[in-house]
Amino acid sequence: MVKSKLDSIYRRMLITRFFERGWGKPENLQRLFQFRKIISQRSTCFPLVPKDYPVEIVKEEKSPDCIILEGKFLTPLELHLPGIVPKAAQDAHFQVVLPNKWNGKTKPMCIHLAGTGDHFFWRRRNLIAKPLLKEANIGAIILENPFYGTRKPDNQVRSNLHNVSDIFVMGGCLVLECLVLLHWCERNGFGPLGITGLSMGGHMASLAATNWPKPLVLVPCLSWSTASTVFTTGVMSQSINWDMLEMQYYSDGKYRERLSKMVTVIDDAFTAGQTFIKNFNQSLIELKKDITYTKMMQRGKISGIEGNLEKNSDDSNSLTMLMELILPKPSSEEKIDITKINWWEREALQFMRGMMDECTHLKNFSVPKETSLIIAVCAKDDAYVPRDGCTSLEEIWPGAEIRYLDAGHVSAYVLHQKLFRSCIIEAFERAKKIHVENGQNMNETTYQKLLDKYMNSC
């Protein structure tokens, strides 16, 4: 897969640094790994959230083009894993965008999950929710991420998650919170229902959709089957404090001796290794070019806005550190013996990959109820979400449709919002037929009978 140069340059322009405090408390990681086995299976996850889970609507605003509600509820993860969710993130906040008048017999509603750095509601509301309402009369629920916006801990700067475990807390929250919101939608007569998101939001949407026992629209954009490559081989890996992770992994035996045995790399390591070795020399050359380019910008040899932004960044140092940490020094011919990489560096990276696969790989989760309602949109040249060596979505979700853009991650986000919306509209058109045919605007008695039948079959 050819990687987008724009993705790499854009990543260097940002100052976000992840996991400055390390992996997270070993006891918290152990609880999260154990709980993953529960929420990854529909039969054990769905019963965790009652259909009448309390939701409070705290505000309503009407305008000529829409109605906006604001609501909140306690995240169910705090009930099932007490103390693991930071206090600031325990209340889930959301906005609902509704039309002043519904067209037709259905009231389609889509949950929109946030990508990395997408704080509060305004971006998703204006870029995708309101346009969808205008174009297709599809309502929206915009859920605020744990660790973002009003749910951000006071000591966290921007989107800089302190620990690797924060990603898994975030995912656990969103999976259960989406169940709360889907139940709320049904109680209020909305349907058909769906979930979407861009980048990290796309992957979180994929995880959340696996646990709903009815047909559900799912449109994950710019994500893939696992987050492991995002944090180990994608450009996001340049923003990780590998020194801290490395030190903790070997200074506290709980990580290496106990926790590493609780996680499993899903995709075949040998195949991935062959791909890595095949492309290693060219990747190293490209990385050195990136470092040289960044240093030239910092020295003022390249002008323009990119150069000015880079003068205020320390990314060249982080790139150099990453290269020295993960890659051995090359010979003059740019060739490397892969066996000479320090074994302990490989093991720490493998632990990261195993953790991410354990908690985010879609192979570990139930297959969504109706895969024909899935339209995934991927960028062919995505450097944020590498697909090399990963099981394809087509294999994990037979019947799902995968569409590829000739773009990188950043250019796809900037240039193809209309395409993302058109895929959501198309998937909802498919769902409307199922929704009407199955008579899903059911009364309470019918709903309870179906629920009891489902629970008895699990």
From TrEMBL:
Pfam families: ABHD18
Domain of life, per lineage: Eukaryota
InterPro entries, alphabetized: AB_hydrolase_fold, ABHD18
Coiled-coil ranges (or none): none
Family matches, as PANTHER family: PROTEIN ABHD18
Protein name (record): Protein ABHD18 isoform X1
Protein's organism: Musca domestica (House fly)
